[in-house]
Amino acid sequence: MRELWEEIKERLRQKVSEGSYRLWIEPLKFDRVEGNTLILKCPNQFFASWVQEHYFPYIKEDLLYLGMDIKIKLEAFEKIKESAKRQLHLPKFSPTEIPRPNLCERFTFDEFVVGECNHYAHGACWEAANGSSSSCRTIFLHAASGLGKSHLTQAVGHKILEKRPRARLCYLTANDFTQQVVSAIKNNAMDALKKRFYTQCDCLLIEQVHCLSGRERTQSELALALDPLIDGGKIVIFTGNQLPRAIPKLSDVLRSRLASGIITSINPPDFETRKKIVARKAKSQGVDINSETVEYLAHHLKGDIRRIESAVIGLITKSSLLKRPIDLGLAREIIHEIVGEPDTLTVSKITDLICCHFSLKPEQIRSRSRKKEIALPRQIAMYFSRKYTDSSLQYIGKQFNRDHATVLHSIKKIDKMMKTSSKFRSQIEYLTSQVEKHKWR
Q1: pLDDT by residue (tens digit) across 100-139?
Q2: If you count DSSP H runs as helices and E runs as strands, how many of each does the chain have, helices first?
Q3: Predicted confidence band of residue 93 (pLDDT cuts 50, 70, 90)
Q4: Is the pLDDT of residue 263 over 90?
Q5: All domains of the chain, ordered by start, with CATH?
Q6: CA-based nearest residue to 114, from 241, 284, 266, 306
Q7: What does the alpha-carbon distance between residue 324 and residue 318 come to, in Å, rounded to a whole number?
């Protein structure tokens, strides 16, 4: 359940501003589960009241999204005054020193699942972190939310600090940088802020640069800070959900800096990558999920990686709380709660799939032709139509311009051929896997 709460916090990070997240969400700590209630610790009673009024709807929404219909209760820490003093103020930044980066422990290269969707981005970041290529010093990672930009960026930070513990690494968001600029202007400390980047930064990791749109002063100061870093061959990595050329209200000077190195996009994970993510996430929780369930989850959980990981955590948590085994039945419940019912297979869809496999047109398979290259695919289509739909023999026959007796004969023939020919059986098993995949899309 602790892991589930961390997943929910990551989801909340995407729904509220960075300042609100740091002030009200980050301090919330998982404590325990009592019956049907999730107990969270917070600094004090005022804090609890504020979170309950303004953020409980978001938390409950994410719990329901993950299939967890449970209550939430907040309890205050014992050292109320000390905690309140520490938590109830916006974070302050020293203009003269680089703060120690706050990197997520699990955002490492070892935990990053590589696939066709992110192979180039991973390779570029790996080269940058290991310093093995002079061309991979400045990188712009472009991707939609939840596809691994932050993971790769922080993985670079972890690897650099692993190889060079004394490296001066600065990891911040565009909003963090904006707050630093505003604070420095207010305190007449711009020179100290610039000096910090000029002389005390070996590696700059800056996220969500699209948030700088329209912030002219911040853009100007960032461009000035970037020049000595890029010119000095320092490692600089940006992330954004828009390509540099597409970010509106961005100065040409800063746009040029953002696009001065490698620009790479991370695409949504493909099916094979999604399978790896499901298996990896389950393994990290000490759970093995059978291949059938892994494939079912991978076919349904398209889109961002957080959604996939959250579903796996929800599946494991539901299994634990309900004392039920993790199987296809439980996975279907989780998927139903997340994406709804899967598309229903029809005779028409099965026919299209068989036609595609045998390079036929639907009108050929429905024709009166008795040629083997057409008749056998027709019989296979009838076989799968009976197996995967609730259609009657009469209805199936009508779709192929045949009667119900012909359909029954076709089914029996396919069954017999599977028993007598291992080669044919392998072909049907392959087609079965394709029909199953189509069923789960």
Answers
A1: 567 888 899 999 999 989 999 999 999 999 986 677 899 9
A2: 21, 8
A3: very low
A4: yes
A5: 2-87 (3.30.300.180), 119-265 (3.40.50.300), 271-339 (1.10.8.60), 347-440 (1.10.1750.10)
A6: 266
A7: 8
